[in-house]
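for the recovery benchmark. tokens below, seq after
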């Protein structure tokens, strides 16, 4: 099978699997134990932490390991909201955010937090003038995604972060899809959520970077293993795997970028003019190709082309039966949203496989259109 669903998860890098194996088989000590096995595991986690911090681009602050980006976003939002003063209990976020941000923000509304959700234009981008009006003196927390997981659009995070800072509000950046792919404007952020399995690492591990001087309440209570504010026994294997994946990001950044740019150009040369791009053609990560064609049913297309793994949107929302909230936010109607597919490619996608996959998808789409009045 040809894999084109890199936004859902990425293939684990062989070096990552090899780095993890000893920590599963023989070096299994609890990293919070005082004996030699525990100290070795703890030291390996600190090396991994430094690799993740380097990949983020963080010269200061601290990286806290979590079970994934969903926990990191929940912790950032709930932990920061718990400390907001009465006069600043307002959160501003964006209509195209991941569900872990939008659903958490909605939960906070039930706890007495005010919520404003910024719309986006047909290109998927926030209107900064509107954002400036919305991020006001009552705002205590702003959250925005760097690279959208469904359409690949890159939000102006540096500018949004500056607006938050001008109002003395904290700023959370979901950089899950951007880590190692586009620069993260760390100086504009107070908290950054990242994930291991989106960058050729293992599932079940993520991290929250928290800037110096930023204080948030714990989400999990217990032993306080992570800096006294995140409880739970860390998995050395998962942390080492994420760390090795991050090290490879730092080492391969140029090669990965150039490879994805070539694949993007090839994709459009194969697809031809039957498809329309969803989202901005300029401000985007080119490893995410979200496209639509008239008289195409995405679910049927996925079923018809079983030799290729691709999707109709976020894996987190698959099976809901509802159109993508991201595509709806762009102004697409139900028919257009359901004719949209997401193709994700990257480090281990070959040019030959991409051409073969897109040819099969194009032929299947053409068959659909020929049978649809």
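predicted aa per position
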């Amino acid at each position: 099978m040809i894999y084109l669903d890199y936004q859902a998860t990425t293939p684990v890098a062989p070096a990552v699997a090899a780095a993890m194996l000893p920590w599963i088989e023989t070096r299994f000590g609890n990293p919070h134990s005082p004996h030699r096995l525990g100290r070795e595991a703890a030291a390996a986690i600190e090396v991994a932490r430094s690799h993740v911090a380097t990949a983020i681009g963080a010269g200061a602050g601290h990286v806290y390991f979590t079970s994934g980006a969903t926990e990191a976003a929940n912790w950032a939002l709930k932990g920061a909201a718990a400390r907001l003063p009465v006069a600043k209990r307002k959160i501003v976020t964006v209509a195209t955010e991941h569900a872990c941000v939008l659903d958490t923000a909605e939960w906070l509304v039930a706890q007495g937090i005010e919520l404003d959700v910024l719309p986006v234009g047909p290109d998927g981008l926030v209107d900064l003038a509107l954002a400036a009006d919305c991020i006001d003196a009552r705002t205590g927390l702003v959250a925005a995604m760097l690279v959208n997981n469904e359409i690949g659009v890159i939000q102006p995070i540096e500018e949004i972060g500056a607006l938050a800072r001008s109002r003395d509000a904290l700023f959370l950046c979901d950089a899950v899809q951007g880590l190692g792919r586009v620069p993260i404007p760390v100086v504009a952020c107070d908290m950054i959520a990242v994930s291991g399995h989106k960058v050729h690492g293992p599932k079940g591990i993520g991290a929250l970077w928290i800037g110096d001087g930023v204080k948030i309440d714990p989400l999990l209570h217990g032993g306080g293993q992570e800096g006294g504010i995140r409880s739970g026994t860390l998995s050395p294997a998962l942390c080492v795997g994420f760390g090795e994946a991050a090290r490879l990001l730092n080492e391969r950044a140029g090669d990965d970028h150039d490879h994805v740019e070539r694949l993007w150009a090839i994709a459009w040369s194969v697809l031809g003019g039957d498809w329309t791009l969803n989202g901005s053609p300029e401000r985007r990560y080119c490893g995410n190709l979200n496209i639509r064609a008239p008289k195409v049913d995405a679910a049927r297309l996925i079923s018809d082309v079983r030799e290729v793994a691709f999707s109709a949107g976020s894996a987190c929302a698959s099976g809901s039966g509802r159109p993508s909230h991201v595509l709806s936010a762009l102004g697409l109607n139900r028919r257009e949203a359901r004719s949209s597919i997401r193709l994700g490619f990257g480090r281990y996608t070959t040019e030959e496989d991409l051409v073969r996959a897109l040819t099969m998808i194009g032929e299947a789409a053409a068959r659909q259109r020929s049978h649809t009045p």
